[in-house]
Amino acid sequence: MLCKGCCTMMGTIFEIKRFAVHDGNGIRTTVFFKGCPLKCVWCHNPEGISFEKQMAYMPEKCINCGECVKVCPSSAHRIVNNLHVYQSIMCTSCGKCEEICLSGALKKYGEQISIQSLLSILLEDRIFYEQSGGGVTLSGGECLCQADFCEELLIELKHNGINTAVDTCGFVKRKAIEKVIPYTDIFLYDLKAIDENVHIKCTGKSNKLILDNLKYIDSCNKKIEIRIPFVPSYNAGEIKKIGEYLKNVKNLTKIKLLPYHNYAGSKYTSLAMRNTLPRELPQKEETDMAIATLKNMGFYVE
Amino acid sequence: MNLFDFDANRTILNKQYNEAEWIDGGLTKDELQNKVLEMTYEVKDISIAMIKAKTFKYILENAQIAIDNKDIFHDKINAEGIMNKQRYIWLREVYDSYFSDDLVYKNHAYDLGAITAEADFGHTSLSRDLIDYGYGGLLDRLHKHMSSNQNLAEEQKEFYESCEIVLNAIMGFILRLAEAVKQYDLDSYECLKQISRGKPTNIYEAMQLMIIHYRLHEYVFGTRLRTLGRLDKLLFPYYENDIKTGKYTKVEIKQMLKYFLNKFWAAKVPFDMPFLLGGMDENGNEVTNELSYMIVETYNELNIYSPKIHIRVSEKTPPRFIKLVLNCIRGGNSSFVFSNDNVTIKALQKAGIGDSEAKDYVLIGCYEPAAWGVELGCTGCASINLAKAIELVMTGGKDLNTGVQLGLPSGEIRSFDDFENALKLQIKYLIDKAIAFTNKLESHYMEISPDPIISSTIYDCVKKGKDAYAGGAKYNNTSLQVMCVASFVDAVLAVKELVFNQKLVSYDELCEILKKNWEGNEKLRLTAKKLMQKYGNGNKEADMLTKQITEYTAGLINNKANGRGGVYKAGLFTIDECFRLGKVTMATPDGRFAGEPLSKNLCAVTGMDKCGITALMKSAAEIDFTDFSNGAVLDFVLHPSAVKGDDGLNAMYGLLKSYFAAGGALLHGNVFNSEDLKKAQERPEAYSTLQVRVCGWNAYFVTLSKEEQDAFIAQAENAL
């Protein structure tokens, strides 16, 4: 393998998912990078928001054996009245307790990994990519917040003949996109709202940069799949506007409407994060109507 | 014959075998049973083959028959299971006459879950010669070979005579049916008249012939017929000709298929007796044709799971056809198994099957490849439980619970090498025992269950004048299944880690802990469970051991002589034995408690395939499946969300193609989520039609035992 001085470069990821089938074409492996500049209220990967590593504790799995107490350098774990008590505020997320935990009650999110280590995992499923027209997807969190690492990784992947997809929220510097664009086969691009105020309400940030970057990618003639997280109480009124906006995107392959779900609730609890998930779930009629709206505008919608 | 009443009459048709109205004039089943027992005991101066032939003739002439005037196919005879009683009597006699200590050992070894060694009259295929010749043609062929040999030995004369008796009896029986149906349905009458002697002239006659043959073979004569063979290949010439000549339209043929397929469903045929579609023919050309699609579509519309369907996949099998089947599976109709032509054909060739015969293989029973119509494979005779070998090494060869000596005493174990060597010796000992017992039993097959019906449909038997169960077929192979590979691999590597690498416990201590079922050692048990070295995750060490142990066992089995002039073929599957074997195998070093199920087929130990389906497939594909010509099957469980939409169907197709490209042999599985299964467990009445692929067959989920249901839920929880 060619070394281009990237051997020492490390990325921070929180999950690698093999047999990912809805993150681009075919069977793929998706790498989830840690850290995201947006704070979407409906985020279903809360473990991907913070750029720091984090410890999750799932008390329902704990057998109160006390092994973690012995290895914890910061006294985050204690046994009180034969029961395990975990104080996240003391925790430095060193991960020693995860290694020792026998019942799977502790899990560290956030691991430093080198290009070569990551690559060797990603190449494991090469035969599945080849047979199904799949490849590798970089996702997150926001992968392009680690653009240098992504660039090197994508170069290696292309060098190995692997199809590449970048799943991004678009709220990144132009420079980051410029870095990865030559080695990216398709962008999976999230759009939540066109109205700036709605966007701020949803994500905490303006969408100016996001829309600009979308135009830029389109101007580079890269394939774009648009993904709309559909949370009716927030962006039901935006669907038509998104459709209008997308009429000017030349390289659009399809639109995927992702109806919001609240499965991630327990993750917020285990990470001791404030659960911001909206209560209301999309009704089937609302989802059908949103899809119909876009289809009627002539888009290929899934 | 009104083809278009199927849907209206389906409920009635489904009850036809439970509520048959027997026509007056024959003997009742009880009368028949008594008469047959008399014949069995009284006649002592003729061979078993002749007794069977004469009994069969007597039954076909005297049993009650029934006609269902709502049906277009006829086969009902009130004599189910009667001849099986004869076989039990003769098997008992053989055991009493020739076996003593070896039988005691065999029974212990079965009950305590070490090895299986049984007589197998349960795995035959419908020979294409039946359709090509018809019963009259088979009789003519028999006569030709009989008369061409002037110096027939006594056994040969008797063989030919027994075949003559059964063929004539069947022809007579078909005429009985024809006369009975005449008043209701002239089309049926004409059809039955034709096939009572001649070969089928159209697709309707061909299907009727298969149905009668199956009924008489399976239910009356009592030799299990475990596949109809390559249905699309057999029927396509008739299909084409009927459409060309205008005899039947496609729409009519589709209606006929409904009656045909539903006939097996209504009869609740044992083990969901299968047929096969697709794959290459003897010349390497693809078989998949218009009819293959029509059969799968009709089957899916009927929403039944029996008969089950085997799908052969060659490099030329159209993706559209494979996706049609995958779409059925994802819709919950999962009674299919896929076989990789590339690998299976090579495996059969390695087992000594000729090139074109290997290419024309069928799967018999659940998944056992065999040369079609020329091989009498006893594919379900013998097996070894690898996890039990670990117990026996740790106990000095004695079953833990009963103290019965099943295996070899073991020497002192001071290193991992010692442990591995002891395992190898133990495994060899058990396999040799299984083979020796099976061989001895096979040498007495003619005293238990000769079979002139199957023999008259196999060319080599007729040419040689020799019964199929005496070794008359061209290939007469026997099989030995290697069971619970993943449990074995995880357990052996746990010993390596806990005892020899991490030194958390000594070997002798570990043996004692396991004998006490981990009592007081929960932390050690969880440590064992948490180890990385597990089969099914692409772990190099585990994959290497899997490769080694499968190679080693295949070497002990393949090409060893059996008791009928053939050889052994190794298989790698457990079917549902993983539950029974688990109950009688002590705690294993991988963290499993005594009594818990062992690993199924090529699956990982439940919950231990933590890297997903692609990693599991890659681990499995490390095995050289061309060493396992009796079949090696991997089960998948996919979450519905992973396979939804066009993406999902393409992903399923990609998985199948990838596994086969990597060298996988056989694949089948389920698409469901654990939530639905849990709900089904709580409210069975609301989920009464939820199908699951159990192993080589399907069942409604709610009819499974709690233990099996829990195993599926655990597997599904791991799926995404």
Query: How are strands sequenced across the largest beta sheet of chain B?
Result: 4-5-6-13-12
Q: Give helix and strand order of chain A, one letter per element, not per position.
A: EEEHEEHEEHHEHEHEHHEHHEHH
Q: Can you give the mean pLDDT of chain B?
A: 95
Please give the radius of gyration of chain B in angstroms. 26 Å
* Cα separation of the termini of chain B: 50 Å
- Tally of strands of chain A: 12
Share of helix among residues of chain A? 25-40%
CATH architecture of the largest domain in chain A: Alpha-Beta Barrel
Give the termini separation of chain A: 39 Å
Average pLDDT value of chain A?
95
Number of distinct beta strands of chain B? 15
Q: Can you tell me the overall shape of chain A?
A: globular
Supply Rg of chain A.
21 Å
User: What is the percentage of strand-forming residues of chain A?
Assistant: 15-25%
Tell me the CATH superfamily of the largest domain in chain A. Aldolase class I
Oligomer: heterodimer
Task: Return the CATH topology of the largest domain in chain A.
Answer: TIM Barrel
What class, by secondary structure content of chain A? Answer: alpha/beta
Number of helices of chain A: 12
Number of helices of chain B: 28
Overview of this protein structure:
The complex is a heterodimer of chains A (about 300) and B (about 725). Chain A is of the alpha/beta class. Chain A has 2 domains: about 10-50 and about 110-295, TIM Barrel (Alpha-Beta Barrel), CATH 3.20.20.70; about 55-110, 2-Layer Sandwich (Alpha-Beta Plaits). Chain A is about 30% helix and about 25% strand. Chain A is built from 12 helices and 12 strands. Chain A has helices at about 65-70, 95-100, 115-120, 125-130, 145-160, 175-180, 195-205, 210-220, 230-235, 240-245, 265-270, 285-295, and strands at about 10-20, 30-35, 55, 75-80, 85, 105-110, 110-115, 135-140, 165-170, 185-190, 225-230, 250-260. In chain A, the strands form 3 sheets. An 8-stranded mixed β-sheet of chain A has the order 7-1-2-8-9-10-11-12. In chain A, strands 3-6 form a two-stranded antiparallel ribbon. In chain A, strands 4-5 form a two-stranded antiparallel ribbon. The two termini of chain A are about 40 Å apart. Chain B is an alpha/beta fold and about 725 residues long. Chain B is built from 28 helices and 15 strands. In chain B, the strands form 5 sheets. In chain B, strands 4-5-6-13-12 form a 5-stranded mixed β-sheet. In chain B, α2 packs antiparallel against α3, α6 packs across α7 and α20 packs across α23. In chain B, about 55% of the residues are buried. The interface of A and B includes residues 18, 127 and 130 of A.
